[in-house]
């Protein structure tokens, strides 16, 4: 299974996928890394010998125009699955049409709780005692697509956004790697899940 992973930040979840795919038994390969801006995670391309590209959101006059350029770039790698891993952009309908349901996203909350760009912060502000991590199929809603996998994560007294996010990320990684495994081994059918 060929993966293209799209990021906007540090890429710690991407690193987990890259490390997993170094195992010859792992049935998936990250074939390219893409980003909507210059960001730290792009350096993982050089470290792991994987091509990396940037489609800078700010270089396009509209989200749709950015989406068209992104689709063109991603299609070059003929992915069986496109993974949004910390891509901090709402992808336009053109991207969803091009790849969904083989377009998945990780989210640092227990959806449908706390969708959107500030899931960790919103959970803290709400004063909940538990939040979580979710993996979803991307559709044209804001984090409202079919849920593939999710798990609860406790919010501890004294938590900051960073400490809570650092507790959520390892769960996201585990769900992401297990999901890629299940898709590659045909144990999970995203088309069926999205029907
Ligand atoms: N949208 C969220 O942003 C974070 C990205 O982390 P990283 O993989 O760039 O470290 C992840 O928690 C992801 O769910």
TrEMBL record:
<dbReference type="GO" id="GO:0004644">
    <property type="term" value="F:phosphoribosylglycinamide formyltransferase activity"/>
</dbReference>
<dbReference type="InterPro" id="IPR002376">
    <property type="entry name" value="Formyl_transf_N"/>
</dbReference>
<feature type="site" description="Raises pKa of active site His">
    <location>
        <position position="143"/>
    </location>
</feature>
<protein>
    <recommendedName>
        <fullName>Phosphoribosylglycinamide formyltransferase</fullName>
        <ecNumber>2.1.2.2</ecNumber>
    </recommendedName>
</protein>
<dbReference type="GO" id="GO:0005829">
    <property type="term" value="C:cytosol"/>
</dbReference>
<feature type="binding site">
    <location>
        <position position="63"/>
    </location>
    <ligand>
        <name>(6R)-10-formyltetrahydrofolate</name>
    </ligand>
</feature>
<comment type="similarity">
    <text>Belongs to the GART family.</text>
</comment>
<dbReference type="Pfam" id="PF00551">
    <property type="entry name" value="Formyl_trans_N"/>
</dbReference>
<dbReference type="InterPro" id="IPR004607">
    <property type="entry name" value="GART"/>
</dbReference>
<comment type="pathway">
    <text>Purine metabolism; IMP biosynthesis via de novo pathway; N(2)-formyl-N(1)-(5-phospho-D-ribosyl)glycinamide from N(1)-(5-phospho-D-ribosyl)glycinamide (10-formyl THF route): step 1/1.</text>
</comment>
<feature type="domain" description="Formyl transferase N-terminal">
    <location>
        <begin position="2"/>
        <end position="180"/>
    </location>
</feature>
<keyword id="KW-0808">Transferase</keyword>
<feature type="binding site">
    <location>
        <begin position="88"/>
        <end position="91"/>
    </location>
    <ligand>
        <name>(6R)-10-formyltetrahydrofolate</name>
    </ligand>
</feature>
<feature type="binding site">
    <location>
        <position position="105"/>
    </location>
    <ligand>
        <name>(6R)-10-formyltetrahydrofolate</name>
    </ligand>
</feature>
<comment type="function">
    <text>Catalyzes the transfer of a formyl group from 10-formyltetrahydrofolate to 5-phospho-ribosyl-glycinamide (GAR), producing 5-phospho-ribosyl-N-formylglycinamide (FGAR) and tetrahydrofolate.</text>
</comment>
<dbReference type="GO" id="GO:0006189">
    <property type="term" value="P:'de novo' IMP biosynthetic process"/>
</dbReference>
<keyword id="KW-0658">Purine biosynthesis</keyword>
<feature type="active site" description="Proton donor">
    <location>
        <position position="107"/>
    </location>
</feature>
<dbReference type="InterPro" id="IPR036477">
    <property type="entry name" value="Formyl_transf_N_sf"/>
</dbReference>
<feature type="binding site">
    <location>
        <begin position="11"/>
        <end position="13"/>
    </location>
    <ligand>
        <name>N(1)-(5-phospho-beta-D-ribosyl)glycinamide</name>
    </ligand>
</feature>
